[in-house]
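Lab notebook, bench 4. Still working through the backlog of constructs that have no structural model yet. Next entry is a single chain of 216 residues. Request: give me the structure tokens for it.
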Amino acid sequence: MDTKPCTKCGAAKPTTTFAPDRRRPSGLQSQCRACTRIRQDAWKTADPEHYRELRRAEHQRNYRPKRRPTAEERFWAKVGHAGALPAPDTLAAGRGRCWTWMGAKSSFGHGVFNFGDRVGRAHRFSYGLRFGEIPPGRELDHLCRNPSCVNPAHLEPVTHRVNMLRGTNVASRNAAATHCPKGHPYTPENTGPTSGGGRRCRTCHREAERRRIRRN
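Model written out:
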């Protein structure tokens, strides 16, 4: 343990018992903390105003403003790189592990991050660090199907329609269906459009029309 002599009591004491002082070459005050405390108590009793001025000047000498971390530093502090591997049937298979977001999350499981000037999705910030701005008219699709993942290798900018059809919602399930609910195949000859932009089974539609005509 390093030692240093005190100029007041003359004893060699560990450097940890000396207060820091950036004005001196050693970076430490010449008197130990115990002797400094005795001197300060005497000043505080004899001249309180002078004591306050000395304390204020000492604080200004030793004050070092704390550097605020950047948005990128705050981002990486909340990322876990030891996530699970994507399922083999996903488009992210073979692209490494998921990077799990350890910070706040939305009700849908997406990471929430303060960019500095606004609050947004953490995976969008991660994509911007690696690839830059997201193309206009595109949104990021999680190829690993893990909404809390921020690995840019698992993100792909796609249209809203493609993003919806790749999910597990009703629209994606209907689009992936090869037969209607009654078992008729969705072939080009047996498939027609609906007024809402969907598709319908022509066989079921013809049967429904026959029943309607018989009722009338």
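Notes after review: The chain has three domains: 3-62, 71-170, 178-215. The longest helix spans residues 48-62. Flag for follow-up if needed.
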